[in-house]
Predict the structure.
Amino acid sequence: MKKIFLIVLAFFSLFAKAQESNKAKALLDEVYKKVSSYKNIYIDFRYSFENTKEHIKQDTRGNVTLSGEKYLLNYMGVTKLFDGKKIYTIIPENEEVTIESASEKEDQMIMPSQMLTFYKKDFSYKWDIVQQVKGRKIQYIELKPNKNSSDIKQILLGIDTTTKHIYNLIQIGKNDAKTTIVINEFKTNQPISGNEFIFDEAKYKKQGYYINK
């Protein structure tokens, strides 16, 4: 009898976990559907990184403009441009531009340009806590990478349950380093020319930049 009870208990535990996962995925899909409906998105964000073992702490602000898969990201004095095929990393301090194909670039850290879509693959989902933040109801979803090779241990994605927009992202690495991105401003369908996502190589060469391909 005890054995049957334990089997039933295990079954309901698995069922509950599956329900949690489905509920989390449904909310993420709702978020994805909404952000995909915008022609473009502008985000002003606060970015912080802390690694207590290495005594590193960084805080900065930045912004990113997204249109489909293309993006223009500015943070920590660096500009990253993705035109749909290649990633251009522009570093004014070094007067250098690095050009890489998107397939060659596999970051082990979620960038602000990816935080609206990264969860579409290679992650499992779990319903987590809900918090009230400045009058907003923020529902957290816990994500864990499916690949053991990932340097990411855990991600908490905070979603505004009213707007269905992402409020923040907290990433914990396997080395316990913590990255936090908080969205300060979220604008949609802004008037942009589209030239923002075109890299002008001649312009940077004229300015004396070294182009590293």
